[in-house]
């Protein structure tokens, strides 16, 4: 299977879905548990027919869906096809989507030696010191956010080593940044926008608002 680029996904016209780091995400506003449960059942039938299955989170007012081709480690045409079928199902049932809602949080840790600290963080977060893939600590069960190691030079002076990467839909980034600034934050660096924008709180703690554009 061929992994689709961000532009190819945008060109597919999936109005209900947004590409975040590695997958397609959508939130459908079912309004109540019974409607959500019936919608999930319908999605399950579509998935079985397609031989391809999304991750599903059912809550009282909404259903969150994630689509990715794990065997290709990215979004492929079969994800796009199933996303369209799910949106058609939602439309027939009068269920709308909230394309600005999907959000993925990753943790980034500065280090000059990922191999020295990787097993510790893997064991702490997942219970398995071997749950390290390259520069990432990965929990296959999805219990904790992905932790990735950002390579830096060695340093002894204490400073912030962690920062959050907050992935949002490409067309929701400006509003998210504006909300953070209105709440007392500042924009530290937007040279790489819309790929990522560095923000800081009133005490200088930093985070990045990230999108899949220009990557």
Automatic annotation (TrEMBL):
Give the InterPro entries listed for this entry.
Glyas_Bleomycin-R_OHBP_Dase (IPR029068), Glyoxalase_6 (IPR041581), PCD_sf (IPR036428), Pterin_deHydtase (IPR001533)
Keywords from the UniProt entry: Lyase
Q: What Gene Ontology molecular function terms does this protein carry?
A: 4-alpha-hydroxytetrahydrobiopterin dehydratase activity
- Which CDD domains does the record match to this protein? PCD_DCoH (cd00488)
The EC number of this protein is 4.2.1.96
Q: Which domain of life is it from?
A: Bacteria
Residues making up the signal peptide according to the UniProt record:
none
Q: Which Pfam families match?
A: Glyoxalase_6, Pterin_4a
Q: What are its GO biological-process terms?
A: tetrahydrobiopterin biosynthetic process
Q: What class of enzyme is it?
A: lyase
Q: Which reaction does it catalyse?
A: (4aS,6R)-4a-hydroxy-L-erythro-5,6,7,8-tetrahydrobiopterin = (6R)-L-erythro-6,7-dihydrobiopterin + H2O
Query: Of which family is this protein a member?
Result: Belongs to the pterin-4-alpha-carbinolamine dehydratase family.
The protein in question is named Putative pterin-4-alpha-carbinolamine dehydratase
Q: What is the species of this protein?
A: Arthrobacter agilis
């Amino acid at each position: 299977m061929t992994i689709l680029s961000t532009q190819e996904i945008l060109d597919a016209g999936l109005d209900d879905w947004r590409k975040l780091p590695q997958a397609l995400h959508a939130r459908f506003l079912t309004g109540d548990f019974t409607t959500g449960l019936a919608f999930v059942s319908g999605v399950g039938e579509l998935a079985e027919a397609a031989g391809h299955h999304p991750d599903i989170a059912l809550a009282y007012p909404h259903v969150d869906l994630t689509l990715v081709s794990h065997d290709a480690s990215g979004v492929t045409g079969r994800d796009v096809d199933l996303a369209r079928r799910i949106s058609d199902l939602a439309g027939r049932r009068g269920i709308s989507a909230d394309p600005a809602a999907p959000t993925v949080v990753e943790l980034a840790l500065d280090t000059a030696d990922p191999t020295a600290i990787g097993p510790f963080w893997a064991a702490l977060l997942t219970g398995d010191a071997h749950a390290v893939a390259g520069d990432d600590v990965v929990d296959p069960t999805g219990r904790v956010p992905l932790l990735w190691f950002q390579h830096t030079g060695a340093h002894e002076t204490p400073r912030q080593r962690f920062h959050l990467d907050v992935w949002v839909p490409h067309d929701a980034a400006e509003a998210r940044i504006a909300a953070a600034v209105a709440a007392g934050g500042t924009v530290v660096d937007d040279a790489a926008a819309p790929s990522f924008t560095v923000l800081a709180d009133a005490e200088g703690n930093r985070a990045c608002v990230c999108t899949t554009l220009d990557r």
